[in-house]
Amino acid sequence: MKPEKKKKLEAKGWKVGSTAEFLKLSAEEAAYIELKLALGRALQELRKSKKLTQVDFAKKIKSSQSRVAKMEAADTSVSVDLMFRSLFALGVSKKKVVSMLTD
């Protein structure tokens, strides 16, 4: 946020902070959410780099297109376990998964 916009909001009585502060997330909860979002981005980037549609990706991991869309959006209904298994099903090594999440 631009500093001048922040000043104007605060001058009008608004409190400006992070999403984690607003939701009162612990450091562990915020880290988990960031990890899940990174997994979703990694899945989408990998799918696109392999020129797969969500339908093709779903067939490859024996799932549905809607589940792939939810994984890519880091939906709360999708487990981190499924997201990791999907990366591995697409041939990503453990080492590559780690590098994808730390970039």
Strand content: under 5%
Order of helices and strands: HHHHHHH
What would you report as the Rg, rounded to the nearest angstrom?
A: 18 Å
Helical content (DSSP H or I, runs of 4+)? 55-70%
Task: List the SSEs and their pairings.
Layout: H1 3-11, H2 19-23, H3 27-49, H4 54-60, H5 65-72, H6 80-89, H7 94-102
Helix pairs in contact: 3-6, 4-5
Description:
The chain is mainly α and 103 residues long. It has helices spanning 3-11, 19-23, 27-49, 54-60, 65-72, 80-89, 94-102. It is elongated and about 55 Å long. It starts with a helix and ends with a helix.
Short description:
With 103 residues, this protein is an all-alpha fold.
Identify the notable features of this structure and list them briefly.
7 helices; 0% strand; mainly alpha; elongated; 103 residues; single chain
